[in-house]
Amino acid sequence: MRSAVSAILSSPAPESNMSHPDYRQTAHDHASLLIMVRHLGSKLNTRNFSRLYERISRQNSFRIKDSSGSVRTISARYVRSYPIENNEWGDFQTHRRVLGLICVGECSNTQEVSELSKIHESLRSKFSGTLYDSCCLFLGLQHDDSFNETSTSTNYVNIISKVVSHPSRTLYYPSLDKCVTLEADLQDFVSSLFWVLESKRLVSISNIDKEKQPFLCAPFERKDLIGMDLESRTHRKRCVGRWRKQVGDLSLQAGLLSEALEQYQAAADVLRPANDWLWLAGSFEGLCAASIILLYPHLRRPVPIQRNGSLTGEGFNSRIRSNSSGVGVRSLPPDIDSNHHFLKNRLKFKHSLGPDEVIEKYHEAVVHYSKYRNAGVIETEASIKAVHVLIEQRKYLSAAEFLQNVVFINLHLSDEEKIQRFTALSELYSQLGFKRKSSFFRRVSAMRCVAPMTTIQPNWTLCYQLLLESIDGYKLSLDPALLSHEHACGWHALQVQILQELTGTARRLGNVPLAIRHASLLVHLLLIQQQQVGSIPILSSQEQAEMAKQLDQLAQRSEMPLHPGPLALENGTIIPPVSLTLLPKIVHFKLQPPGAVLAAQRLMPEDEINNGPFLFTPIQFGSFRKQPTRKTQVEMDFQWVVGDHCEVLIQVINPSSYELRITNMQLLTEDVEFESESTSCIILPPAVDQKTTPTVITLSGIPRKPGLLKIVGYSMTVLGLRNHCKLKSAMPLMGSAFFSIHVVPALPRLSVEIASPNHTLMTISESQSVATTSSVQLYAGQSTECNLTLVNTSSVSVESFDLELVHGNKLCSSQVFSVSVDNLKAQLPWQSGTAVSVTVYVQGASDFILPAITDYLSNLHSGDDSNSLPSLSGPPSIFSRLSNHTTVTCSPRNKAKRAESLVSVRSGTSSVRSGGSSNLRIIECHGNNHVVPRTVAVLLKLQYSGGPGYTAGFCRSNGVGLTVEILPSVIITKWDVLPAETPSHCYLVLDILNATQHEMELQYSSCKHIAIEALDTCRIPVPVERCPLVKLTHVYTEKDLSPEQQLEKIAKICSEHISSLVELKWSLSGVNQTCKASLSGLRIAPSMLDLLHIPPIQLEVELNNEIWSAERTEFICVVGDVLNVTVGLFNALSKFLGPLNLQISVYQDLQNGTFHRRLDTRLLTIGSDHAVLEKMEPNSNYKHCCGIIFFTPGTYKLDVVCSLKISTQNRESKSNLPYDSTNEQHVWKFVPSIEIIVSEPL
């Protein structure tokens, strides 16, 4: 390729006298009349002349009737200038003759008309040898007739009479826009040329048969006439052949294709034996031209179309050039189409050539032309015509062979003509699809424009334009979006070189913004090539750093601010913007959701919104659904709020080898007003052989209006340039063009301050989701308060507020925390700056009773009296004392002393475990005295709204976490129930553990206190009023209850009754507060139930007809007297009871923990001491009488016990067991026991 360029630039043969080739000639031009249109004078500006010339050029085909009445189609070809050297070749090819001359000028008086006429005459005389007719067109003169030589118009006659010399034809028009008859005048002008041409053709035909014809020759052949034998037969053949060839040219121009084909064929047949290779080649070329007109009638010179490159979608730098073939869209391939024309016209035009024959003849003609050094221009044009035909036939490789021949043709051309030749070759190669070769010749042409050793002045503008048009062939685009980031495309070294040349050319033009634009693209391209797979760096790291430094210096030299948008050149070319999206390179782009306390939430969840009625239809709409399209956006699942500070986190790396200083980095948004905040940073280059660590940059801003906000990219200033980087370009692998997020209307903001009991103040920041205060420590039963202060820190008023306690363990935390917001809601709305407070009450609620043993019920009826844990420390029923040696110790004769002796007021754990000192029936807990503190947490959920956001249905939610550590204080480890002095009361005996590290003062009744050491246990009796029968009536009367279910319900009612009456108050030395311990959840054993509630069977005892009352302490009788005992039973229920077992027993208390019940030798019972009632009706009475005679004096005790037997089916399952009171369902005793003193008779 470079050798071809050297051949073009080398010195040619000096004999050539033909000017430069016409690279836009086609075969159809052989049939055209050449008309030159010249611009006269300076009054008519170039723009108006170009408009008029374009209008004239569109009239290139005329239909003219000949002398026989046939209509011929005459073609015209217009040129603005034409070299006289080429006109001298008119004898060789008549289409090179200038047959018509049209001069265009503007004048307003006769003097100007005369001057323009003189110029016209000089041009006419210059081409007088070939001109058939001429015409002068004047603008600016008023007349009645546009063109009439015999016009009688006074104005026209006066003007013509004053003109010294005027052309044969003169056309006058008032203005450019009023040339109404221009087309008709051109028709007349071309008709005059046709008739002259037709007359010359007829004369030439008549001369063929003459013995001697004029010897036609090319300009360079005239010097060879000397010494030539003009009488030889060969010369005669040459004369005839050349003459026939010229007749063929005239016939072709006259529209007679058949005659032209015949003359060309005849000329070729004559010239071939005469070895006249030049004219033989001309005959072949004419034969090809006539055949091409038949085969490809639309292969015409296209009309140039200028189009703004910015309107095309291929890129900003694309420019539509007038180098296309001009062939319309056809449904058949070109070879089939041309063959169809050939077969159709074969019979009519028998000498017509086929498509392949045309190429063969062109090849033969070019070979013959190459034999003559002076026919280089003819050879070049013939090769180009063949190329056009081959392009039409889509035989691009064959066309490339013809073009390669053109490259090596050495012509004598000026520097401007060489530039034109390189440009023409570039356009032809572009039509062939040889893009890189096309760009090579265009770049050579550009470099020729500014070559130092030329005769022309450097044309940097043309050089830049040619360089700009050559980038496509190197697979380079000025639009960064079209550059591949993944795989190598094109030739990197050539791309870098062409961009460097564009940058240097722009600097020589003095266009600094343009140079900056190309330098930016060069830096961007180097970064792209650096990250492509398998690419080798073109420039070293130092050279790249130097390139970036030069770009920074260019940016500082720019006098005007550099706009990141497209750059428009003077010729209409649009240079697209270049954003340095790889300086730095984005590796992660994430929109930050607002903190949990600032996040916008729906007042009503979307799934609860009523979207209308449900409509069912069996129609399937799947076939009508659109196909899924490519995802163009990433929509966030959270919202931003108007007026809030919003953030986007970007992770970037520096792919270059130099330091990056980034300033004024902001977000680019669309559709919603967004106030972006600027940030700056410095990113150092990565160290050698070390992994690159991304740098995190936070971009922030404040949305000002609600709607769907689109974040399309970011802007920044790097290397002195302002860049607008779109996400689609910066992150091509993201798959979307932008991020979208909904911006909701403005909402208020509340700051929360919490004052804990230890007077510490905690403020919840906006970035926190939930703030947890320091752990508050309380003893079980202790209470405190936390003050929650809310301040409206926004400009939007709070119109709605709600506070909800969200419990982790609802059963536990609901007893610990409580709050009321009625006072806060009454103060709504809260204006900006308003501070309100609410108190959160914290109660150290705890289970003061440890759970009982799991095997309690299984050991309930066991006969084991062991006190080892876990067990019952006594018999399961109080009435087991009738037959058991383990009894309650009481002192005789004194009620107060007896109550104190029921339990040990202060006892250690050793006594409980041993069971030797307090022989009480006590339910024990699991484990030892060590109790682990428990933690209770609650979330105070604040939901508030106001302003436009409240109207739109949005709110904010804030969470305040409170954690309370509840330390153990009072723990009830064991408990039992003992009878009291009166039937309406009983004693609840409790073992109390002080689980604190301090001495505790415990108040267990209104007037009784006790001090308990740290980690010590104390046993206390608590007097309790027995549960009234009214609370239990429904249990006894309820049907379909099993005995176990009945006992369970009674136990529950009794437990609630005890917890409502008993309240233990305690205080510690370090706690300035009286705390309370509750007995909620106290587990009641079945053996305790009959002592805890008023029995449904009420007992009444009469001794010797005196009703015994609990207020009496003793009854005195004499040995030998009969003691009449009458026991009355009353069923207080509205339901019958039975069967009942009544037992009257007498025993002696030995005051050593044992009872003596075998008194057969000391007393006698008259009558039965027990009775069985099968059924006792509701509200009925029953009495049983017996007598007792004491034989020995002493102190005796009388017990009356009534028991309700188990059901029949249960009794059948236990029929094989001995009778035992523990097998009864309920046992009711007359309390207290009656003390009888038997004395000796007086």
From TrEMBL:
<feature type="region of interest" description="Disordered">
    <location>
        <begin position="1"/>
        <end position="23"/>
    </location>
</feature>
<feature type="domain" description="Trs120/TRAPPC9 first Ig-like">
    <location>
        <begin position="607"/>
        <end position="722"/>
    </location>
</feature>
<comment type="similarity">
    <text>Belongs to the NIBP family.</text>
</comment>
<dbReference type="InterPro" id="IPR058568">
    <property type="entry name" value="Ig_TRAPPC9_Trs120_4th"/>
</dbReference>
<dbReference type="InterPro" id="IPR058564">
    <property type="entry name" value="TPR_TRAPPC9_Trs120"/>
</dbReference>
<dbReference type="Pfam" id="PF26254">
    <property type="entry name" value="Ig_TRAPPC9-Trs120_1st"/>
</dbReference>
<dbReference type="InterPro" id="IPR013935">
    <property type="entry name" value="Trs120_TRAPPC9"/>
</dbReference>
<feature type="domain" description="Trs120/TRAPPC9 TPR region">
    <location>
        <begin position="416"/>
        <end position="556"/>
    </location>
</feature>
<dbReference type="InterPro" id="IPR058567">
    <property type="entry name" value="Ig_TRAPPC9_Trs120_3rd"/>
</dbReference>
<dbReference type="Pfam" id="PF26283">
    <property type="entry name" value="Ig_TRAPPC9-Trs120_4th"/>
</dbReference>
<dbReference type="GO" id="GO:0005802">
    <property type="term" value="C:trans-Golgi network"/>
</dbReference>
<dbReference type="Pfam" id="PF26282">
    <property type="entry name" value="Ig_TRAPPC9-Trs120_3rd"/>
</dbReference>
<dbReference type="Pfam" id="PF08626">
    <property type="entry name" value="TRAPPC9-Trs120"/>
</dbReference>
<feature type="domain" description="Trs120/TRAPPC9 fourth Ig-like">
    <location>
        <begin position="1099"/>
        <end position="1236"/>
    </location>
</feature>
<feature type="domain" description="Trs120/TRAPPC9 N-terminal">
    <location>
        <begin position="227"/>
        <end position="304"/>
    </location>
</feature>
<protein>
    <recommendedName>
        <fullName>Trafficking protein particle complex subunit 9</fullName>
    </recommendedName>
</protein>
<dbReference type="Pfam" id="PF26251">
    <property type="entry name" value="TPR_TRAPPC9-Trs120"/>
</dbReference>
<feature type="domain" description="Trs120/TRAPPC9 third Ig-like">
    <location>
        <begin position="981"/>
        <end position="1092"/>
    </location>
</feature>
<dbReference type="InterPro" id="IPR058563">
    <property type="entry name" value="Trs120_TRAPPC9_N"/>
</dbReference>
<keyword id="KW-0333">Golgi apparatus</keyword>
<dbReference type="InterPro" id="IPR058565">
    <property type="entry name" value="Ig_TRAPPC9_Trs120_1st"/>
</dbReference>
